[in-house]
Design a protein that fits this description.
Blueprint: H1 2-35, H2 44-51, E1 59-68, E2 76-84, E3 90-93, H3 99-113, E4 119-120, H4 124-128, E5 135-139, H5 145-148, H6 151-158, E6 162-166, H7 168-172, H8 179-187, E7 191-195, E8 202-203, E9 210-214, E10 223-229, E11 232-236, H9 244-248, H10 255-261, H11 266-280, E12 285-288, H12 293-298
Parallel strand pairs: 3-5, 5-6, 6-7, 11-12
Antiparallel strand pairs: 1-2, 1-4, 2-3, 8-9, 9-10, 10-11
């Protein structure tokens, strides 16, 4: 019996060692990849020039699919961003989550951050109702599944193909943290991927006044969307930082998060924070951090209001 116990113990140690080695290799590959991606960042003049075109969006709003409070600098939001053109077309940046996924994702945040239980508000397609038919294009700041989770319901509601615009970095590169979101996109029958050119700033074809900057830093395919609405350019920054105060005060994310939870390039994220702060200091630009609900509200970005209900005024 003692001999069998020793053999079993040695076998378990071997399995644990192999598992640790595999984990180390996966982590190392992800960190090497994310640190190798640093496209140049466009300056304010380039952003202004590319978006200074006729027929830009006439409205922008956020639609929150879930929220979560707790021991964090701000209430966590899980939004989609809606851009409307005068001809009735709508472009969506990020898709939030559906109710079932939100509950599962929220439990992880409860454990990781000590947050309260998540409160689902309804998926993108549920909240839009018949207005979902206006969606003519889709893009993602990155492919984590709290940003892609609303895609299956959107496909079911649309019943037709939908162009999904991606930079080459987002289309081709990823790691274990983006695998669930990439799988959702690959399985989405409505998604027709449209590759954008490999440029530091690429216009979204067919959607005047909308462009994308390949940022990386958070994930290999992380992107910042720039949208001109009136005289202002909104910069939808995704998860460059999770809370606005960390952008304003140049605070990095916890190192343990950037090392193990999501393999991040901390130097690149610092570069992105500086770039966004410099743009945000100009009157023409407004930076939006995805997950900070109070900052979303302070930014002047209106919350989505269904037809017949008064929307917040545009800034």
């Amino acid at each position: 019996m003692t001999s069998l116990f020793r053999i079993a113990a040695k076998g378990l140690l071997v399995l644990l060692g192999v598992g640790a080695l595999v984990l180390a290799v996966v982590l190392a590959e992800a960190h090497v990849e994310i640190r190798s991606i640093h496209p140049p960042l466009p300056d304010a003049a380039a952003l202004l020039a590319l978006t200074d075109v006729p027929d830009t969006p006439v409205r922008i709003a956020y639609l929150d699919t879930a929220s979560q409070t707790g021991d964090a600098p701000a209430t966590l939001a899980y939004p989609a961003f809606l851009l409307d053109w005068a001809d009735g077309r709508r472009f969506v940046v990020d898709a939030g989550m559906e109710r079932k996924q939100a509950l599962a994702f929220g439990r992880f945040i409860e454990l990781a951050l000590g947050a309260d239980p998540i409160v689902p508000h309804g998926s993108l397609s549920e909240q839009l109702g018949p207005e979902v038919r206006r969606i003519a294009g889709l893009g993602f700041t990155h492919l984590h599944n709290d940003h892609t989770g609303g895609l299956p319901g959107l496909c079911r509601a649309l019943g037709r193909t939908l162009p999904v615009f991606q930079t080459p970095w987002q289309a081709d590169l990823g790691n274990y943290s983006t695998r669930p979101g990439r799988a959702q996109l690959a399985a989405a029958e409505c998604a027709q991927v449209e590759r954008l050119p490999a440029r530091p700033l690429a216009a979204i074809p067919g959607f005047a006044g909308l462009a994308v900057v390949p940022g990386a830093g958070h994930t290999p395919g992380s992107s910042v969307f720039a949208a001109r609405v009136g005289e202002r350019i909104w910069l939808l920054a995704g998860d460059v930082t999770n809370f606005r105060i960390n952008l304003d005060e140049d605070r990095p994310k916890p190192w343990i998060y950037s090392l193990f939870v999501v393999p991040e390039a901390r130097d690149r994220l610092a570069e992105l924070r500086r770039w966004l702060r410099e743009l945000d200091a100009r009157p023409e630009f407004q930076v939006v951090v995805s997950h900070d609900l109070e900052a979303l509200q302070r930014s002047g970005l209106p919350a989505y209001a269904p037809p017949g209900r008064a929307a917040q005024p545009q800034p």
